[in-house]
Amino acid sequence: MTKKKKPLKKTKGKIIQGKTAEDRFKEIHGMTIQEWNAKQEEEFKAKTGMTYDEWYVNQVKTTTPIEFINGAG
């Protein structure tokens, strides 16, 4: 019994050749995952005036336990 080979994944008609997740991501988006995350962090900081970590700490400090349980916050 021979093992069937998976077909190559297509994205918008383009065949993705990368062997690793990082290679495939870079081929699709034109940047590494780390570069993507840095860009997202910059956009978040420009929008909120703080980093995601600062925003999260602020949310934890200002959300009461009951608000957290109810999903508000």
Q: Would you write up a description of this structure?
A:
The protein is 58% helix and 5% strand. It starts with 9 loop residues before the first strand and ends with a helix. It is mainly alpha-helical. Strands 1-2 form a two-stranded antiparallel sheet. The chain has 4 helices and 2 strands. The mean pLDDT is 84. The longest helix is centred in the middle third of the chain and has 16 residues.
Largest sheet: 2 strands, antiparallel
Using only C-alpha atoms, the radius of gyration works out to: 20 Å
- Provide the low-confidence segments as ranges: none
**What order do the helices and strands follow?**
EEHHHH
Describe the global form. elongated
Which tags fit this structure?
2 strands; single chain; 58% helix; mainly alpha; 73 residues; 4 helices
Concise overview:
Helix content is 58%, strand content 5%. The chain is mostly helical.
List the helices and strands and how they pair.
Layout: E1 10-11, E2 14-15, H1 21-29, H2 33-48, H3 52-62, H4 65-70
